[in-house]
Amino acid sequence: MTGRDQYLIDVWKHLLEFLKTNGYADPTVIDTFYDQCYLYELTDDKAVVIAPNAISKQILQSQVEMISTGLMDILDLSQPLITEVLHTSELQAKAAAVSYETFNDEDFKSMPIQKDRTFENFVVGDCNKESQAAALACALNPGKFFNPLFIYGNSGLGKTHLLMSIANYVQDTYPTKKVYYTESLKFVETVVNAIRDNKIDAFKQYMYSIDLLLVDDIQFLAGKEKSHEVFFTIYNELINNRKQVCIASDRQPKEIKGLEDRLISRFSSGLSVGIDSPEFETSLAILQMKIKQNGYGTDDIDPKGLAYIASNFSGNVRDLEGAWNRVLFYAIQFQPDGGMIKFETVMNALKAQAVVSDKTGLSPKKIIKEVADYYGITRQQITSKTRTKDISNARQISIYLCRKLLNLSYIKIGDEFGGRDHSTIINACTKVEKTMKTNQAYRNAVEEIERKLTPED
Question: What's the domain range around 262?
Answer without folding.
Answer: 129-274
